[in-house]
């Protein structure tokens, strides 16, 4: 069924969502429809860099950053007293005023004092960014809140009040405690350090960290750790004499030794050996004749092709062919190509779109990478950071003036106050977004937005 066919009855759906006599089961079906059509794959089944760059609906935060395009139906559902509790909580953050004015809310709170415990934390944090939530309700939620939710409530305008004259110092003191990324964020951290997307104070904090994985990330930003080089291929050419006529029937260990020789005819013969460990040594050997290398590139055993990518004699034309293999098994090969001495800027442009962050990090480190390729890497890194599960990277994207404006505009719905704070002070953010943030529930966000808006208006005068 197409989008068009599903959209034919949306007027009827809106009428049903508005009608207080509509049965709860029917309202749930409408809610399920809304979730279906808000799925990014429903409208555009695509993947890769273009999808991430221009659409951006990827990552765990997409569910809250992307506003449902069927807003009138959502608003009607949230206002309908017959809408079941689970559905109400699911959409409450989209239309908080309608939710707070729903006549069923008081009854729900009487029956379930811990009502908001049942709301997904990200959605609850988005809900809490609204200044209209009364203090008594905030205090009810705070009674069973997680640390993130408790902090959002602590600095809510209806609890804390307006920020004082030292608002910037207070906010920065809180920002200094954003948790650093765990081990599984190491590669992402390498990318952002190399692309210099971090504010100076945050980079300084990272450099002062004594966590091993963060120190490793700092080292790998400018170099490659030794364990990333194929240890099996670390040998010196041996000049031992071998009998060309009998080597084909020699045992495996003898043929491996022969594959490390400097005799081009011997290497030509062993390029077709039955054992892949022998062929891998031939592929790696700098004395292997150049006309043999394309044959080894067609090898059906990936470690042989990995070894070939480490041979400094492989010409750029062959590297370009190898770089087109985007399979997961060829990951190590593409990493080696990205740091190969014969790699060209054009090949690096191709590898800059690689799905593997490990390959992209090799491209970032290569001084031959062009300005346009670096811009592409920057775009992708910042867009991915915007949707990252880790709040630190999400903050980096919000605060960075090079984040795509269409993605920055979504940041007003961020669940994290410090990300909205970074957004308010970002000079690349459209003035209308800054204006929206002046009414944010967080005392520091609204004060930062007010200051930024005043400065913008002065500059325009």
Q: Which descriptor suits the 3D outline?
A: elongated
Radius of gyration equals 29 Å
Q: Would you tell me the overall average pLDDT?
A: 87
Gap between N and C termini: 53 Å
Characterize the quaternary organization of these chains: single chain
Tell me the fraction of residues in β-strands, as a range. Answer: under 5%
Tally the helices: 33
The residue fraction in helices comes out at 55-70%
pLDDT < 50 stretches: 1-8, 39-57, 225-232
Count of individual beta strands: 0
- Return the domain count: 3
Largest sheet: none
Descriptive report:
- This protein has three domains: 3-164, no CATH class; 231-309, no CATH class; 378-460, Alpha Horseshoe (Leucine-rich Repeat Variant), CATH 1.25.10.
- Helices cover 58% and strands 0% of the residues.
- The protein contains 33 helices and no strands.
- It has helices spanning 3-7, 10-18, 24-37, 40-43, 49-55, 62-65, 71-79, 85-91, 96-101, 104-111, 121-127, 135-142, 147-154, 157-160, 167-175, 186-195, 200-207, 212-220, 252-258, 264-270, 276-284, 293-297, 302-309, 316-323, 331-338, 345-351, 357-365, 371-386, 391-399, 405-408, 417-424, 431-437, 443-460.
- Helix 16 (186-195) crosses helix 28 (371-386).
- The model is unreliable at 1-8, 39-57 and 225-232 (pLDDT under 50).
